[in-house]
């Protein structure tokens, strides 16, 4: 085991898989000699050279289109979009091409690739560097969506994503890139896609979160415990396909459900989770489900910590749900 932060864990996963599989190619803006804006790809250029770690022009559509072509010809590309906010120029390539190839070819052609991109607020990035766009991609059939919260999961989930036959969007919560640290095996291991984990056991309220918001949910759960409310906190890890069984098992125990995410409320992934719980565990619910989310506004510069659904906003929702 080694103590790593999330940046180091992701870098370790990329390095390990590039050594193991010569098909793996990393490409994106400044991923080469610079090592990426957050230094996630640092050192890969020196070890693997410019034919496997490729600096690209500033063209997200071009980056993803090129990566799709690579995948169709048997390579395993890992394109990086420097900030998730910049992914939308490539949205047509992802939705109309990447997500469709396996289906449209009857399984003859697969596009095995992982799109890595930092997501979320908390670094004073404002509305062009702080978005959390998971709902745009969860809605698209043919894509898998992952968002780890800690270094151990980040490495294991990335290795699992690289070995998955379907295209994966790998969202990296930049607020905890270096803040989240933990023991990470130095060798090879995977965390299976589609599996959530119970980060804190409890009996009164189920709280579901992912990425950087997991830590806010855990903090709110600790504060709720001081008021006599025992929260069970679930880290989704894979957003789609979602591990609904783990959520339902918890809700059937607690009878109450709160979901937390950074993205705006309307049309957010939280609404889908509430619907799934209502459909499959309605008679176990003892109170209406609650969502604690970002607001239906652009991400602000000056009110960043008011926009984010931090612990001080989660706690009242938990207490009110427990007392309903």
Q: What integer value in Å does the Rg equal?
A: 19 Å
Which fold does the CATH topology of the largest domain refer to? Answer: Rossmann fold
Structural class by helix and strand composition: alpha/beta
Question: How many structural domains does the protein architecture include?
Answer: 2
How would you name the CATH homologous superfamily of the largest domain? Answer: Thiamin diphosphate (ThDP)-binding fold, Pyr/PP domains
Beta content: 15-25%
Give the helix level as a range of percent: 25-40%
The CA-CA distance between the termini, in Å, is 45 Å
Count the helices. How many? 12
Characterization of this structure:
The chain is an alpha/beta fold and 324 residues long. The protein has 2 domains: 2-184, Thiamin diphosphate (ThDP)-binding fold, Pyr/PP domains (Rossmann fold), CATH 3.40.50.970; 197-323, Rossmann fold. It is 36% helix and 20% strand. It contains 12 helices and 14 strands. Strand 6, helix 7 and strand 7 (168-173) form a beta-alpha-beta unit. Helix 1 runs parallel beside helix 7 (151-162).
């Amino acid at each position: 085991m080694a103590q790593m932060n999330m940046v180091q864990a992701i870098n370790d996963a990329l390095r390990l898989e590039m050594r193991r599989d010569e098909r793996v190619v990393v490409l994106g803006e400044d991923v080469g000699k610079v090592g990426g804006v957050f230094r996630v790809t640092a050192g890969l250029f020196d070890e693997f050279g410019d034919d496997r770690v490729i600096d690209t022009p500033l063209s997200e559509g071009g980056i993803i289109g090129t990566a799709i072509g690579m995948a169709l010809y048997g390579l395993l590309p890992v394109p990086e979009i420097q900030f998730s906010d910049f992914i939308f120029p490539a949205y047509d390539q992802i939705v109309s091409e990447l997500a469709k190839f396996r289906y449209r070819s009857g399984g003859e052609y697969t596009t095995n690739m992982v799109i890595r991109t930092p997501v979320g607020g908390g670094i004073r990035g404002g509305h062009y560097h702080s978005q959390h766009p998971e709902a745009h991609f969860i809605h698209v059939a043919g894509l898998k969506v992952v968002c780890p919260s800690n270094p151990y999961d980040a490495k294991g989930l990335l290795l699992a994503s690289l070995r998955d036959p379907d295209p994966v969007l790998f969202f990296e919560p930049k607020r905890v890139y270096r803040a989240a640290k933990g023991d990470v095996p130095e060798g090879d291991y995977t965390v299976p896609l589609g599996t959530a984990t119970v980060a804190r056991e409890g009996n009164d309220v189920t709280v579901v979160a992912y990425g950087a918001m997991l830590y806010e949910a855990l903090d709110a759960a600790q504060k709720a415990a001081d008021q006599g409310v025992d929260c069970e906190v679930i880290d989704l890890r894979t957003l789609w396909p979602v591990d609904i069984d783990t959520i339902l098992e918890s809700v059937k125990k607690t009878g109450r459900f709160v979901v937390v995410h950074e993205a705006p409320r309307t049309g957010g992934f939280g609404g889908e989770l509430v619907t799934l719980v209502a459909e499959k565990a309605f008679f176990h619910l003892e109170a209406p489900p609650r969502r604690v989310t970002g607001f239906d506004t652009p991400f602000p510069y000056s009110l960043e910590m008011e926009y984010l659904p931090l612990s001080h906003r989660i706690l009242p929702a938990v207490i009110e749900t427990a007392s309903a």
